[in-house]
Amino acid sequence: MSHNTIAINQRMDRFNSHASVWLFGYGSLIYKADFPFLERRPASIAGWTRRFWQGSHDHRGTEAAPGRVVTLVPDAEATCHGMAYLVTPEEFAHLDHREKNGYLRLATEIRFEDGSSAEGLVYIATHENAAYLGPASKQAIARQIAASRGPSGPNSEYLLELARALRELGKDDPHVFEIERHLMKLVPSPVKVVART
Ligand code: SIN
């Protein structure tokens, strides 16, 4: 499968007739909402875990030297915490463009902190997309992140912003925080964090 997913995502019309749709964000979508939304709520989805296993050619790296960004991988025991946004279906044109490097829209149950839930969408980059990098040691992931930069800025900024946003939500994520620890050893004075994709 090509890593440009815009055409495939535009065929996913399940929510087109809805007045509004919940979107679950677990990566840059937690800390950078560059789209209008009706409501935003901390939320989670079950059966998935966050991993820095997706290559970024368009935001935090280049075709020649991809950065690493997060995707979700199936894990029956896991719950992934993030942020949900209630948006109108028109926002998906912008979101499909932003998430075009391998991410596919998937319908999922989104759980809110008050115990309620709603069906919504999440963007997931599976192992079948051409930009997928897959597992590596946390040290190797941190080294690749420290060395990468793309049109949206340094890859380290993506990691540091995500870690900060998860702390702000009060959520632990050992995978993210361990890679952050390794990065801090490689980058003595962290880049100034400015929210970008
Ligand atoms: C997301 O944030 O939900 C998808 C991955 C990303 O854009 O970083």
Report on the biggest sheet. 5 strands, mixed, barrel
Estimate percent helicity: 25-40%
Ligands bound to this protein structure: succinic acid
What order do the helices and strands follow? HEHEEHEEHEEHH
User: Could you give the order of strands across the largest sheet?
Assistant: 1-3-2-4-5
How many angstroms does the end-to-end distance come to?
23 Å
Mind telling me which CATH architecture this is? Answer: Roll
CATH class: Alpha Beta
Can you identify the CATH superfamily? Gamma-glutamyl cyclotransferase-like
- Beta fraction of the residues? 25-35%
Q: What's the mean pLDDT score?
A: 93
Structural class: alpha+beta
Number of strands: 7
C-alpha Rg (nearest Å): 16 Å
Give the helices and strands, then pairings:
Layout lengths: L5 H5 L10 E5 L2 H4 L7 E18 L10 E21 L4 H7 L5 E9 L4 E8 L13 H10 L1 E2 L2 E2 H15 L4 H13 L11
Parallel strand pairs: 1-5
Antiparallel strand pairs: 1-3, 2-3, 2-4, 4-5, 6-7
Helix pairs in contact: 4-6, 5-6
This protein binds succinic acid.
Write a compact overview of the structure shown.
27% of the residues lie in helices and 33% in strands. The chain has 197 residues and is of the alpha+beta class. Strand 6 and strand 7 (153-154) form a beta hairpin.
How would you characterize the overall build of this protein?
- The chain is α+β, with helices and mostly antiparallel strands and 197 residues long.
- It has a single domain, classed as Gamma-glutamyl cyclotransferase-like (Hypothetical upf0131 protein ytfp), CATH 3.10.490.
- It has helices at residues 6-10, 28-31, 92-98, 138-147, 155-169, 174-186, and strands spanning 21-25, 39-56, 67-87, 104-112, 117-124, 149-150, 153-154.
- The chain has a 5-stranded mixed β-barrel. It has a two-stranded antiparallel ribbon with strand order 6-7.
- It is globular.
- Bound molecules: succinic acid.
- The site of succinic acid (SIN) has 9 residues, from helix 2 and strand 3.
